[in-house]
Amino acid sequence: MNIIQLKGVHQEYQSGPIPEVILESITKSFAAGKVYAVMGPSGSGKTTLLNIIGGILRPVSGEVWLDGENLVKLSEKKLGQLRLNKVGYIFQSFNLLPFLTVEENIFLPIRLVKKDVKPYLERYASLLKSLGIEGKKDVYIHELSGGQQQRVAIARCLLMQPKVILADEPTGNLDSTNGDQFMNLLTAMAREHQITVILVTHDEHIASFADEIIDMKDGCITTNSIRGDKGNENIRRANL
Ligand code: ADP
Ligand code: MG
Fold this sequence. Notes:
GO molecular function, one term: ATP binding
Number of helices: 7
Number of strands: 11
Largest sheet: 7 strands, mixed
InterPro entries: AAA+_ATPase, ABC_transporter-like_ATP-bd, ABC_transporter-like_CS, ABC_transpr_LolD-like, MacB-like_ATP-bd, P-loop_NTPase
Structural class: alpha/beta
Protein name: ABC transporter ATP-binding protein YxdL
Keywords: ATP-binding, Nucleotide-binding, Transport
Organism: Paenibacillus pseudetheri
Strand order of the largest sheet: 6-7-8-3-9-10-11
Mean pLDDT: 90
Bound molecules: adenosine-5'-diphosphate, magnesium ion
């Protein structure tokens, strides 16, 4: 099942007299529960693509379907609700607040929209357990290692039960051991909870954890590499 469908998504910015094309009529589907890595040189449109999928940016033209709704047609209010309920973000810095505890950080998105935390408590406990940080809930973020912080960021994101997780170079600040650990956790969680993950990375090794690699250049998808059944070694390159 496709959770996301982009149809002719076109984006341009007008800074000078001639508009600059940022995304050139992108058509692409993303399946539920799969992990996608977006690669490509700086300026190729990766962040723009992520922001359009997350409903942060509206394209100039095209359709952006997320879980049965065309984001391009939604009001700002509906779009805000959809972002909150269906889209999770993980940033490079993890955007955790250092002088709040693990628990306070994880519940922050829920508290910010003045929702009751009670319905989330069971899921919270099980996430802490599966991420191995159940003993850390009252510890301040600044007291945690980088590896533990990344688990908190994953827990905070998963607590909201998003359909999609968008991550823009999430492993950029991690060493290779923590990078591997992050990808193992994220891919395992995506499969377990049937969440689609789209992550931007410059690192071939990080990308090899994904089910599919999307290469971008000058606002176009140039290649899709779909991982074969035999794992990372068996990458099938298919020209679009
Ligand atoms: P990437 O993430 O692959 O490095 P981006 O999506 O950030 O690429 O940017 C793609 C292009 O769009 C770049 O040339 C960038 O300068 C341009 N761009 C991004 N955001 C804006 C903006 N708000 N206004 C004008 N140009 C922008
Ligand atoms: Mg970028």
